Predict the structure.
Amino acid sequence: MKSIDAAAHTRGESIYLDDIPLLQGTLFGAVLGSPLAHGILRGLDTTEALQSPGVVRIFTAADITGENQIGGIIPDEPLFAEDHVHFCGMPLAFVVAVSEDAARAALKKIKVTIDPLPVITDPRVAQAQGQLIVPPRTFRLGEPETVWGQCVHIFQGRADTNGQEHLYIETQGAYAIPLENNTIKIYSSTQAPTASQRAIAKVTGLPMHSLDVEVTRLGGGFGGKEDQANAWAALCALACLDLQRPVKYALPRTDDMVMTGKRHPYSSDFRIGLDKDGRILAYEVTFYQNAGAAADLSPAVLERTLFHCTNSYYIPNVKATAISCRTNLPPNTAFRGFGGPQGMFVIETAIAKAAEGMGLDAAVLQKKNLLRTGDTFPYGQLALSEAPACWQRAEELYDIDSIRKDTAEFNAQHLLVKKGVAMMPVCFGISFTKTLMNQARALVHVYTDGSVSVSTGAVEMGQGVNTKLIQVAAAVFSIDPAKIKIQATSTSRIANTSPSAASATADLNGKAVWMACMAIAGRLREVAAAESGAAPGDIELRDGAVLLQGAPTGLSWQQLVMAAFVKRVSLSEHAHYATPGIHYDPAQEKGHPFAYHVYGTAIVGVTLDCLRGRYTIDTVRLVHDAGASMNPLIDRGQIEGGIVQGIGWMTMEEILYDQEGRLRSNTLSAYKVPDIYSAPKEILIDFLHTDQDNLAIFRSKAVGEPPLMYGIGAWFALRNAIRAFNPAADLPFSAPLTPEAALMALYQRQSVKVSTPSSMDSSHVAG
Ligand code: LUZ
Ligand code: MOS
């Protein structure tokens, strides 16, 4: 089934926040962000700004009717700065005016006085000063301390990954509309309608039942709207309640880039020990997470880093410690992979470093240490591993031997252009790491004309979840998918939802839809059985018709629905799903946190222009464990998008804060994301089809986040290309590897001998 949004997206008719028709009297907001990253707020003078044309009111911390607090996990994040500012862009005031222009013009007239304090941007510095968000956590398996002596090879080092801007095409925003008796309807571009509802309730002081948060779709989320849509919704609701007028605020791009958090940068130290055959015996790692100025989702992200610290490998002795460090940057937040990619980069670094030290191709060590079924993850869960199957299939399908041979031949023939290849296996756990979040509900109505309405907590953000939910209902009822409508996500229709996140949205909400539809279908079969004097078990709904022991009854779906209605049988159902079998004990750091894991292996090939440092990502060829994909078209789209986004993080996307904590990469001219020209020239995707039971909806494994981590292979492929040119280079394991960084690495030592090439072979590099 094609995405149900394809046609309207293509015609530009899909409704995003900015497409909602405005009510008469709508006012517009603008936020004044702190100009300094750290300091004492001495004064905030709005007198002159209030005189600015069109300004209706200016809200600050003093105007909050509830609590000045939006922290989700830990209450450490004021909505408006009160005594201190903790990051550049921290909201100080919310101007509400008759137009966006009027609101923004008034911002410049607010006088702010801040006494500056020292600014911390580096997580290691924060840690040294005791600035931690939560106490450190350690995962342990085996006894690493005692096995170092048995290791024949030991390597240690440091790995750094930078942040990443979400760059959803639709920026953050909300539109609040007053209803009667102090109730508010809020349209919000959020992945987490309930989290927004909760934050609005806290800030306004209204009960949650008086707030209806509704979302039709997002123009992208990627984690950036899992927690950080709440502030804007709370601001609009606060102003809406006070002024009893509709209030809208959609962030301009630069405000969005400056004020919102990003993927967490990490700096990590590792030590890896291997036996003489290359089996990894021990791994120790310490992660320093740059959390920014408040907790936001950092403790959960930190936890997922630990869960993924050994990626797709079995290591019998592990000690992994993660430290969440408070800095004066905007609170960093969820981003596709949620700490997993950061953890995986470090183990891949450790393996690459070990391979280089042992004179091997990293793939030899990767393959030798792949996780097998029955192996234990550091957190105690046993693996049901597809890692060897994906790896072997990738080697065979894409003929890894000839890829290696062609690469070596090319590099032998070319002096100024080098190719590099890397393998990237991925293992990603599916479930929210907080067990309680793995629950969902669905509300299904069948109308008397046979059409069906489905509501869930799932938010459509381009990932195709609504299409999959329609597939679920259409499969259970066996009716034309066109008869089924997915309603906008609303906290009035479905309560207490988890965010659309953790790759789990289709699984959780799909299972709830399945349960609700099964309940209704069961009642319909009873009605049909009574009509025909048969047993319900003999009745089947198929292709819009009612069958009795496989033979047509002459009754259509629509007639059956009407018959049920006439008999006063309920045509509606509200179902609740909670993932069975998962549990976790944080005191022991052991349990069974994930419903299942997704596996895969990618082979990434790059070409590097060794004169200029420019490169192309030529190919990404992979075998991906999709289970039994219920929608290969959508899954393919998710995989392609994840790969390109992962490559962007590893190569060209460079977040730059200066030492004063100001974002310098605050425009699209200063922050480069992959476009069609820099995307891989070729992405080949092969689904590893597995039929064994899992907890995925229709055994179709989650696909949102796992593919992003194939992009890590691009970094290591580039490293291999650099080393083909300059084998003496001792390159830092630091991402992103921008063309500038590649150029520096290529000439890192002057001992490189560059002879004149016989032909200008740099023309092999596009650009
Ligand atoms: N969000 C969350 C997530 O709250 N918990 C998770 O485990 C998670 N994982 C991935 C992405 N978002
Ligand atoms: Mo996410 S990082 O699944 O919002």
In short: The CA atoms of residues 327 and 473 lie 47 Å apart.
